[in-house]
């Protein structure tokens, strides 16, 4: 992260907000807010966070990184 208005500051969120409408919001007409809420959460937790690899996390997805971190903490406390 850099200075204000630095291109790198918003890249991750701009990518997220570009993918969300394509993959969830524009797929169908939503009758209830609860249905849309469920689909957004499902997309984030089961698709976006399981496929998106990050250089900062050693090319792991956020879920893989969290599992590695959790496994290391469990091993250290045992």
List the helices and strands and how they pair.
Elements lengths: L6 H19 L7 H19 L10 H16 L1
Helix pairs in contact: 1-2
Helix content: 55-70%
Instruction: Provide the number of structural domains.
Output: 1
Low-confidence stretches: none
Shape: flat
**Strand segment count:** 0
Overall structural class, as computed from helix and strand content, comes to mainly alpha
pLDDT averaged residue by residue: 78
Order of H and E elements: HHH
Which strand-content bin applies to the residues? under 5%
In this structure, how is the largest beta sheet organized?
none
Which radius of gyration do the C-alpha atoms yield?
16 Å
The number of helical runs is 3
* Spatial separation of the terminal alpha carbons: 37 Å
Quick overview:
By secondary structure, this protein is mainly α. Helix content is 69%, strand content 0%.
Report what the structure shows:
The chain has 78 residues and is mostly helical. It has one domain (7-77). Helix content is 69%, strand content 0%. The protein has helices at 7-25, 33-51, 62-77. Helix 1 (7-25) crosses helix 2. The mean pLDDT is 78.
Characteristic terms for this protein:
78 residues; mainly alpha
């Amino acid at each position: 992260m850099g200075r204000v208005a630095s291109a790198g500051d918003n890249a991750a969120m701009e990518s997220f907000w570009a993918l969300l409408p394509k993959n969830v919001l524009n797929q169908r007409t939503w009758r209830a807010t609860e249905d849309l809420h469920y689909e957004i959460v499902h997309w984030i937790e089961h698709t976006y966070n399981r496929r998106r690899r990050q250089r900062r996390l050693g090319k792991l997805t956020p879920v893989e990184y969290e599992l590695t971190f959790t496994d290391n903490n469990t091993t250290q406390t045992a």
